[in-house]
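Changelog note: in this version the structure field was regenerated for every chain. One regenerated record is shown below for reference.
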Amino acid sequence: MLSIHEKNSFLKRLYPMTKIWASLGFIIGIFTFSNYYISSFIFVLALLVILKEKMLKEFKVLLIAAILLGISLFLIQGILSPANQTVVWNIIPGTGFTLYKEGLTTAADVYCRIVPLIAVLFLAIRTLNMTELGVALNKAGVSYRASFVLTSTFQIIPVLNKEMHQVMNAQKSRGLDTEGNLLNRMKAFIPIMVPLISNSIMKVQNQVVALESKGFNSNAKKTFYRDPLKTRVDSIIVACTTLFALSGVAYRVYLLVM
């Protein structure tokens, strides 16, 4: 959970495991079909959902990164791929800066998998509530301790990020130089990390005491404050994405056999 989309929306109301299984189904289908049209359709579909969920502003950062990655990938593969033979465009005549068909084809094949993958995972991560995911995992048969460790690990990331900025601001107010050249930043590393780690250890100890007082080690059946419910829509989505993934696997096996 890097950042959760808090608005009550269609994706937000879906059962947590539905998002996990749907994402996994799309990923398997994307990599097994490896088809430009299917990948483009999934990306456009994900983009429409992003627009409907009003998350385009957050997705822009990833979209720009994906575009820059694509430019780099096409240039590197188009120029340096060992399989290059057919010249497409001589960028600078008389030099080695020449784009080849084989390299561009390889780059397009890789890129058509990466872009829809980014969009699908963005939707899943941004709308997945870790507390509800822990409950769903517990209902699915995962032990309470394992689900608690998993959800706590993801929840602690934004907490540590927030505390790090607080420690940096506190150290700056005491005259510590945390900016400038690399040497200054290296000198500021220990004064920032020591209080951050010590605060984290203290919080873990306090959390252990709190969990013990709430009967964490008890063998009694656990109850949940937030109890997400699975609906017919969830079943339909899981069935469709599972069928898509199985079709991709069957298609890949067919190509290998033939």
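Spot check on this record: The chain has nine helices and two strands. The first helix runs from residue 10 to 13.
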